Amino acid sequence: MDTYFKKYENAQPPAPVPHSPLREALFQFVATLTIVVGAWYIVWRWGWSLNPDALWFAIPVIAAETAAYIGLVLFLYNIWSCRDTPREDPPHLVSECTDAESAADRPIAVDIFFPTYDEDPELVRLSILDAKACEYPHDIDIQIHVLDDGKREEMAAVAAAEGVNYLTRSSNEGFKAGNLRNAMEVTSGDFIVICDADTRPFPTLLKHTLGYFRDPDVAWVQTPQWFFDLPRGRSLDQVLGKTLGSFGRTLGKGIQRLTGEIVIGRDPFVNDPQMFYDVIQRRRNRKGASFCCGAGSIHRRDAVMEAALKSYGNQVAKDVDQVVGEIDDAEIAGDLGEMVRTQAALEIEMTPYKFHVSEDIYTSIVLHSDPDRNWKSVFHPHVESKMLSPQDLQTWTVQRFKYAGGALDIAFHDNPLVGSKMSFGKKLFYASTFFSNLGCVWNTIFLVAPIIFLFTGIAPVAAYSFDFFNHFLPFIILMEISMMLGTWGVAGFKGKASYLAFFPVGLRALWTVIRGQQIKFPATPKERQEGNFVHLVWPQALMMLLTAVAILWGFYRIFIQGESGALSGLVSNTFWAANNLIILSGTVLAAFWKPQDEDPSSEQADSNPDVRGVEALTS
Question: Are 209 and 85 spatial neighbours (Cβ–Cβ below 8 Å)?
C-alpha cells in the first residue's frame, strides 16, 4: 500500500478549546444584541427599503436575508453555552452501567466494528492494530470485527493474520447500515464502537469514554473525528523561494513581516472539522443532544436494539392504520387489521440502523425521539482516534453530497420536528442542522445579486442611503463579533467560505431529494484520486467570471458611459462581489491542488499527552 500519509504519523491532535465563563457571558451579551439588531434590520428591510420598481429582484434578496437571519438565530442558539458532561471513572462491571436489577456482575464486553467495502486491506490492518492496542484499567472483553461487504479473500487473510473476527453476508442490502445490522445480529457486546475502515483508535478510547455510560440514560458517546493527514501547506517565503530562489525567500519574508504568516495550500478542501466538533457538537451537550456521526462513536447495544424494536412496531401499526383507517365496520376492520399486521410483520425488516445514506443521524433521531425513555448522547471533547481526510476535490464532492442529501432527505421525509416526542431544545438543534443544508438556495441569491446590480444598475433596495447603512452596518458588525466570541477563537472564515462556495453540490442534493430520487454515490475513496477535477468547479468558475466582468462593467457604466447612479451602490456591490470572488477562488484553486513535499513536524498542533508516541506506523 502506498502510505502517502506516513509522513504525518507523528502528528498530534489539538486539545479541546478551554471553556471560559467570562468569554461565554460576553458572547451571550453580544449575541443577544445581534439577534435584536438583526430583527430590527430585517423588519426595516421588509417594510421600508424594498425597491418598488424591481420587486422581482428585491423580494428574493430580502427573502434570502431573512432565511440567513433565521439560520443565524438557530446557530447562535446551538452555540449559546457549553456544559461539558462530567466524565466518570471507567466502570468495572456491566451492572455499573444500567439500572436494571437483572444486570450481570461480569466484566464489560465491547465489540469494535470496522465496516469496509473496497478499501485497501493493509489500510484496514493499521486500524485493526491500533484497536488491538486499546487499554482498559479493568478486565474487559474486547472483540474486533471486520465487516467486509467486498467479500475479499485478501481482507479475510488480514483478519485471520491479526486474530480478529471476519464477517460478511450474502448481499449488500442497505450498504453500510445493512452491514452494521448484520454484525449486530451475530455479536453480543454490551457496547459497540463504530469505526470506518481508516479509523485508527487511540489506546485511551475505551477508558476515556465508557465512564459516561454509568448514566443509564446515555445511549451513545460521540468523539471528535480528527484528520491527521491535513496538508499543512508552505509559507509564502518557501513558495516564492522555490520559484525565485533567494530573492523570492527574502521577498516572502518581507511581506510576512507586514502581514503576518501567509500559508499556501493549508487544508485546501476545508476538511478540518474542529469547528463542527469542538464548537457545534460540544455545545449540544447541555441538552444531551449531540448527534451520532458514525466513526468514533460508542453505542449502548440495548439502546440501539430497543429503538429498533419500537421503530419496527410503529411501522407495522402505521401500515395497519393505512389499510383499515377508512373502514366503518369494526368487525371487518379488526379482521383485516390482523391480516395486515401479520403480513407487515413478515415483510418489514427490523433493523437497528435505518437503511439510509445517513444512518448515523437517523439512529440519533430515533433515540432522541423515544417518548418512553430519556435517551441522551454525550459528546466527548477529546480526540480519541485519527482518520484520513479527502485528498482531492472529487472525494470531497462525494462526501459533501452524501452529507447534504442525507440530511435533506430526512428533513423532507422523516422530519423529527413534526409529530415526534422530541424535546423542544433537541428539535431546535436538529432544525439548525437541516436548515443549514438549505443554505445553497439563499447563498446562490447572494452570489447573483451583486452581478445583477453591476450589470444593470437595478438595486434590491430603494436606495443605498445613510438609512440603509445605519441599519445594515450595526447588524453585520455585531454578527461578526458574536461569531468570533462564540467560536472561542476557532477559525471560521474558511468554513463560511466553503459553505457559500458549496452551493452547486447543495443545489444538486436538494434537487435530487425534491424529485424523490435516491441519494446515490460511490464509496468515499481513502487514497488520493488522480485526474482533472476542473469539471467539478465549473459553476463556481462561471460565477467568478460573471462577477469579475460585472465589476468592470459597473465601473465602465458609471465612469465611462456616465450613467446616473449612486456611487455608494457601486462601491457597496463591488465590495460584495469582490468578497464573493475571494470565497469562490478557494474552491476553484482546490481543483488544481496536488500534494507538495512538506515537513508536518514543523507545524504541529497542540500535543495530547495521553496519545503522544502511540501513532508510530506499524509495518
Answer: no
CA torsion angle 565 568 574 580 (round to 10): -120
Tell me the β-bridge partners of 299. 192, 220
Cβ atoms within 10 Å of 545's Cβ, excluding its own: 11
Sign of CA dihedral 553, 555, 558, 559: negative
State the DSSP H helix or E strand holding residue 114, giving kind and residue range, or none if neither: strand 108-116
Instruction: Give the integer Cα–Cα distance in Å for 153 and 233.
Output: 39
This prediction's pTM: 0.86
- The answer to whether residues 384 and 206 touch, using CB atoms and an 8 Å cutoff, is no
Question: pLDDT tens across 294-326, in order?
Answer: 899 999 998 888 876 766 555 545 555 565 555
- Domains (range + CATH), the chain: 15-77+433-595 (no CATH), 94-230+270-389 (3.90.550.10), 234-264 (no CATH)
pLDDT at 101: 74
pLDDT digits (tens, 9 = 90+) for 355-375: 455 678 888 888 898 878 889
| 3-class DSSP state of 436 | helix
Residues 550 and 451: beta-carbon distance below 8 Å: yes
User: Where do we find the cell 447500515?
Assistant: 177
* CA pair distance 147, 456, nearest whole angstrom: 59
Which strand (E) or helix (H) includes residue 200?
Answer: strand 200-201
pLDDT tens per residue across span 491-533:
777 788 888 999 999 999 999 999 988 776 555 555 555 566 8
